[in-house]
UniProtKB/TrEMBL annotation:
SMART domains: Pro-kuma_activ. Residues 1-27 form the signal peptide. The keyword Calcium applies. Its cofactor is Ca(2+). Pfam families: Peptidase_S8, Pro-kuma_activ. CDD domains: Peptidases_S53, Pro-peptidase_S53. Keywords: Calcium, Hydrolase, Metal-binding, Protease, Serine protease, Signal, Zymogen. The keyword Calcium applies. Residues 230-624 form the Peptidase S53 domain. This is S53 family peptidase.
Length: 624
């Protein structure tokens, strides 16, 4: 079984190598391209000319793992393949280091290569993943043949290469990637954000369909229900877990986001107590945060607090007995998230990692992919399961002008979690599941007026990664690329989860409040909670889940292939977001209309680009 990772890097290198021109191409016949930000990093920007030769530049030179990248990829594939004799034979971090840590010879050789090019070696990462070097732009150009220029776009300026990075053929086998050649920020975004303060408008339903919106105009000839007020953990457990006694005890789930909410533990405990659950026990929720956070303005640090709140409360709600270990990234920048995930695998305390963030594939660069993938492969070999939300902008055409998947959710070594619109009835049972994709209609002059596509589960086909073996025969054969997502859980904000968070209200300052929220940022931690229960039941780690999910027995995964009982729900909102003093705003939020994904925006039988192969059922927990 292969996951085509090497092919993906080769494709990226081919893209950037094709952009090498002029002196850099003709002057280095004995050089080889390496994964790095190249001319594509300056797309849409105006060239302002060459960077001053003496300008200081700091780079990371990532080192090839011992035995080579192909050997590491093959080992990760084998340990994940149910038909392999090494399936499930996971390594400890020490065993991984013994087998794959870059060699001391590589460190010495690459340091010497950097110094010979006029660069200063500043240090080696604790596990020898990379060497940090500093030098002038002229020295960087001489060492890597990149032709650094200054570019301007949208009022910002940055440096970027005009040629693909190369190194000598002799040193190339030791260099995995070069990072830092472009100073254009590569920022990840949370897949769930909330305003500074928000309160659900009323009326809303305690369970799906409780309150018909009979005081509002019919929609397409039918009276729709008012949207749920937000499902609480007891409802979600009842709907998904089938009454199991499993609670995640003995399992640790890691959550990565940027920054750290100062009120997360008190908020989560208040929320649990208000809804009949046990608060976190002493030491059950812990945090691993950096000494300082950076880039708060660029990244909107406060906006990440809502993401963390949702992730923590969703995991605890689904698996109340599991330990939750929160890792705060110093910022939303790509490199910081890569370092944060590296801390997760080096610590090796968690067997499941929930990640509700990402960015467009087109914004990723080869060095970023190489750095992430090395961490994912280490995690897979240690039995760690990475779950990533698939995104909240459907096919991304509206946001970027190009149909594409997000990254890292498109990586073959992670499980991509898409989204459903979900009905949970008065008894706590699932009443329906359909695709999350929302067209909005506003109320004007007594009629529902279309306002266009609002949001929906991300999905599609990767342009970075070839189709992995575990998707062959399941994903339609007339498409290419790694298909996104793999599975799905509830994500629609209309049928979302109620969360509790300390918010900054316009009157009265900071106070705890509750509100409904969704997005695949909800789906990923819900799935992480499910996986914690499965790991508790099996007594083992799950590693890369995808081969098991795609090969699961009938009944283990529920195919989502039909519309719901209603076209959508009526949503009532306070015009000012917090109270009725400013009046009410009413809208219809539809189901199963996800831009161009699926079959015209709707789910289909079998795998589809909204819900993947479907939603894990209670059988997934109890024996599937």
């Amino acid at each position: 079984m292969t996951y085509a990772t090497k092919a993906s890097v080769a494709a990226l290198l081919a893209t950037v190598a094709g952009l090498v021109a002029g002196p850099a191409a003709g002057a280095a016949p004995a050089r080889k391209a390496v994964p790095a930000a190249g001319p594509q990093a300056a797309k849409g920007a105006a060239d302002q000319g060459a960077v001053a030769p003496g300008k200081p530049v700091t780079l990371r030179i990532y080192l090839t793992p011992k035995g080579g990248s192909d050997a590491l990829a093959a080992a990760a594939a084998a340990v994940s393949d149910p038909s392999s004799p090494t399936h499930g034979r996971y390594l400890t971090p020490a065993q991984y280091e013994a087998a794959y840590r870059p060699t001391a010879e590589s460190v010495v050789a690459v340091e010497a290569y950097a110094r010979d090019g006029g660069l200063r070696v500043d240090g080696v990462e604790a596990h020898s993943r990379y060497i940090t070097v500093t030098g002038t732009a002229a020295a960087v150009d001489a060492t890597f043949g990149t032709g650094l220029h200054r570019f301007a776009a949208g009022g910002d300026s940055f440096d970027a290469p005009t040629h693909a990075a190369t190194v000598t053929a002799a040193i190339a086998p030791r260099v995995l990637a070069v990072s830092g050649l472009s100073t254009r920020p590569r920022a990840m975004k949370p897949h769930a954000t909330a305003p500074a303060a928000f309160v659900n408008g009323t009326p809303c339903s305690a369970y799906y369909g409780e309150k018909p919106a009979s005081d509002q105009p019919p929609f397409q000839g039918r009276t729709l229900p008012y949207a749920p007020c937000g499902y609480v953990p007891a409802q979600l457990r009842s709907a998904y877990e089938g009454g199991t006694a499993l609670n995640g005890s003995g399992v640790t789930v890691a959550i990565t986001d940027a920054y750290a909410s100062p009120t997360i533990e008190s908020d989560a405990n208040t929320y649990a107590a208000r809804h009949g659950d046990q608060p976190f026990a002493a030491g059950q929720l812990t945090q691993s945060n950096p000494a300082r956070f950076t880039q708060e303005r660029l990244c909107d640090s406060l906006g990440w607090y809502g993401e963390e709140t949702l992730d923590v409360e969703a995991v605890h709600g689904m698996a109340p007995g599991a330990n939750v270990l929160y890792y705060g990234s110093p910022s939303c920048l790509d490199q910081d998230f890569g370092d944060t995930l590296a801390r997760v695998v080096d610590d090796d305390k968690a067997s499941v990692v929930s990640n509700s963030w990402g960015d467009l594939e087109s914004n990723e660069t080869p060095d970023g992919v190489a750095a992430y993938e090395q961490v994912f492969q280490q995690g897979v070999l240690q039995g760690i399961s990475f779950l990533f939300s698939s995104g909240d902008n459907g096919d991304e055409v509206a946001s970027s002008g190009v149909g594409q998947a997000d990254y890292p959710t498109s990586d073959p070594y992670v499980t991509s979690v898409g989204g459903t619109s979900t009905g949970i009835g008065s008894t706590g049972a699932l009443s329906f599941q359909t695709g999350w994709g929302t067209d909005k209609f506003t109320l004007a002059s007594g009629a529902w007026t279309p306002a266009g596509f609002l949001y929906g589960a991300g999905g599609g086909f990767s342009s970075l990664f070839a189709r992995p073996a575990y998707q062959q025969g399941t994903v339609p054969g007339n498409t290419t690329g790694r298909a996104v997502p793999d599975v799905a859980m509830d994500a629609d904000p209309t049928t979302g989860m109620l969360v509790g968070e300390t918010q900054k209200f316009p009157k009265g300052g900071n106070a705890y409040g509750e509100y409904r929220i969704g997005g695949t940022s909800l789906a990923a931690p819900l799935m992480a909670g499910m996986q914690a229960l499965r790991n508790q039941r099996t007594g083992a780690r799950g590693g890369l889940l995808n081969p098991t999910l795609y090969g699961a027995a009938k009944g283990t995964i529920t195919d989502v292939s039909a519309p719901g009982p209603d076209a959508g729900n009526v949503r009532s909102d306070y015009a000012n977001g917090v109270d009725p003093s400013g009046g009410m705003v009413y809208s219809v939020r539809t189901f199963d209309q996800d831009s161009s994904l699926g079959d015209g925006g709707a789910v289909t039988k079998g795998w589809d680009s909204i819900t993947g192969i479907g939603v894990p059922s209670a059988t997934y927990l109890t024996g599937g």
